[in-house]
Amino acid sequence: MQQQKCSTEGDVDAARARLANARYNACLVWGEPEAASEQLRILVAVNERELQRERALHECRAASEASLERSQGRLAYARSLLAEKEGDIEIAVEQLRIVVAMRMNELDRFQDLHRRRQIAVAEVDAAQCRVAYARHRLARAEGNSAKAIAELQTLIALHEMGLTRLTEVQRHAAVSEIDMTVGRWYAAEARLRLAMFKEQHAAAKQELQQLVAIDRALLELVQKRSTLLGGGPASWEEGAVVELQWQLDFDRHRLAKGAVGEYIHEHPPDVLWF
Hints:
The protein is an all-alpha fold. It is built from nine helices and no strands. It is globular, with a radius of gyration of 19 Å. The two termini are 26 Å apart.
């Protein structure tokens, strides 16, 4: 594809990052720490190249400060995961502090845009969730269990608040069933994270069962939408179906093994098209 000039180097690296994400998650479930670390090294290398491209564009005024910060945050997060796997907590904490700072800057921008009525409140809610999760990861790396739990509780409360808002808006037919299902997915995934962190295995299994049910429902909704719109192999829906099928298979496998391995994504896995 790249040789045929159908995609840029950035597109190819984005595909490499998705593959590394998937393989990393699989290694966690299969209990292969060395292979997991290798996938993180790939992810770090990909994000380093992405940041170099963003810096070049930024110097030419072809990329925004926000876009540059997102790339810096992705690289810092990947580095923090690798440092944690290699037992270098000092570097992990240093990188996670960068992530928290980037997320706080993003939240400030979004709040300003919302005050000027340029974005919806849902965008601000999502940014608040990303801040809470970044703070959770930092507190966890620092060994502050109480704060780590508190940030996950904040994350759950934010997702539940977002669900309540979606329910209110749905009464006016302004929210699709896909949007509602995605909202339920995020709330269930946050509860799963809390149960995992507190080592509440029965609760974690229950949340994982719910997550599998939501995975299935979301996949069916997107498949139905794809059929109705007549989407082809290159369509948005086709890509979403592939990703969601992987997510469903992954969660089923975790449930079957009784495993609740950690995810790589800064906020829960890529149900990000919606």
